[in-house]
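FAQ: What does a ligand-bound record look like?

Like this one, built around guanosine-5'-triphosphate:
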Amino acid sequence: MSYNFKTIRPVMPAKDMINVILSKTQRKTPTVVHPGYDISRIRGFYMRKVKFTQETIHEKIDTILQDFPKLDDIHPFYADLINVLYDKDHYKLALGHVHACRNVIDNIAKDYCRLLKYGDSLYRCKMLKRAALGRMCTTLKKLTSSLNYLDEVRKHLSRMPAINPFERTLLVTGFPNVGKSSFVNNITNANLDVQPYPFTTQNLYVGHTDYNFVRWQVIDTPGVLDHSLSERNPIEMQAITALAHLKACIMFFLDISETCSYSIDQQIALFKDLKPLFKNKPLLLVMTKIDIKKFEQLDPIDQQKLQDVIQSENVFYSQLSNKSGEGIALVKEKACGLLNEWRQNLKPEQLTGGNPNLLREESILQGVYIAQPKRVNQKRMPVIPQVMGKLNRPTLKDVQEQNGGAGVFSFPLQEHFLLENPDWKYDAVPEIMDGKNIGDFVDADILQRLEELEKEEEMMDQAEIEDPEEDEREEMLLNTRDQINKKREMIKEEHHMKMKQQVKLHRPNLEDAKEDFAKKGIDTTFLEQRAQKFAAKKVLQKQKRQQQSSDDSDDNDMDIEGNDRNQRKGRDALSRSRSRLREISRSRSRGNKKVLTAQEQAMERMSKKIQRRRRNEAKAGDGDTKIDCKMPKHLFTGKSGIGKQSRR
Ligand SMILES: Nc1nc2c(ncn2[C@@H]2O[C@H](COP(=O)(O)OP(=O)(O)OP(=O)(O)O)[C@@H](O)[C@H]2O)c(=O)[nH]1
Ligand SMILES: [Mg+2]
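The answer part, i.e. the structure of the complex:
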């Protein structure tokens, strides 16, 4: 049996389970009966529904019963651990309750199927089915507390380390804060929490290490205090359970520096107290924190006490320091050696608990001899062939040292080349690029020709410097440019002056004209009449324009009434802000009063073209009004007769 409790499936709460089961029944056996059907067909249909519900519940409860370990079947270590953590009676009661409910539900289904056989109408059959499902659900509802408890147990079990009771095991125990977890961290990859206060470790933890080509599990336990069994709390009891049941090498850790805040006397008392649990098992007393205080530095009385314990109990002992690493490997080796020795006296069946895989592994290991090289403490001198002694010439290394050492001197490797003709040894190796020999492209007198070219260029430069005509031409050009610039500036300034001197035209107004005419002795009444006539005409024109615009807005908003000027102004502003498309359609509705510009016509054509395809297909567009169905018929008919709000 593998003790991997992570595979236990989650336990549903009773309420969820009822929902799932009823939904499944509804889905798998949909209602397909009518009053006109033959009664045997109606009976058969409802019987099927009841049986289906019972089978689903049976299945669900069976998975729970199979997944949870039975205390009588599992290793006593796990049985005791479950007892310590979850209380054996409570655990058994919960599983028993679930089991009993399964039987009750089976019986309910059987009874109602029998009654359904005598159902004389669709209504009676339906009511019987309803009663059967109702009773089954009520029975399930009573499981609420048991199912919740089982789910909590499952969560805790899934977090428990996978300890194999039949594997080679080192079990670390002792007072809290003595360095147990530090040791397990040092020899395995468990990465446990280490803190300078007691009861850091509150559960069992497991790490793995290799020794002698085999995997070993190292179990870290919570610290144990020195008091009677009945006073021990569940945290300590986990350690006691492991000590009692696992066939492991027990490593009792004793902090001789007393920095764990427990004296040596207290620790010895605990050791003696736990002694019955170590019976018939390999035991190693480990003195820790020797970096703070060594055994030899202890008080002679304490030393004597420890010696007495070791001699009287006949135990092996060792010392280590988790800080400096001193003695850790030795302690591990010693503990593993002790357990191996002890296991040799046991039969393979006892060690493996009848597990065929472990049994095979064990028998192979017992039959295999692993040869180890003998380690003799002798010095191995370098072996130099005798021929080397006879040679009387410097070695390559000597040559290198003489010529400036490594990096400066490079060995003449050419002398070792094996070529067809030994004369070729020191030939230059051609450099090849893109499949061509670079040497073929080298021009021997290229440098000479380059020099000639450079000389020629120099001579030409000098000849240019000496040419006086060139200077004159350049000077003339510069002068002409200055003259042009000056002239341009002058023209600009003249233009400015002209603009400033222009006389402003004076337009006489009515008053000026009257004065002028009066001076000349002309009657001015006709002037006033003309001015009044113009003013009246202007006012009329203005009113006409306003009237027109109000007509426009009336066409647009038929429901707006009243002659309030301000309101009309607002509406005008509103109509101005409307889109061009709307304006076009309005103008059309007024019987082509407005002549459309070419641009407006183009826009109208484009909008028509866009809408044509959708109009032809007669489909609803994004702009069409849509009312979603508020009461879908299939969800609101049939099944909610007795005041039920939630539908399935
Ligand atoms: N100087 C010294 N300190 C050590 C040594 N081993 C452990 N400690 C310190 O002792 C403290 C407790 O170490 P843990 O390994 O957590 O002890 P524990 O026995 O697992 O404690 P609990 O989990 O509480 O039972 C830590 O602060 C360690 O740093 C050691 O060899 N030398
Ligand atoms: Mg610890």
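Follow-up question: can I read anything off the structure? Yes, for example: Residues 163-358 form a domain with the Rossmann fold fold (CATH 3.40.50.300).
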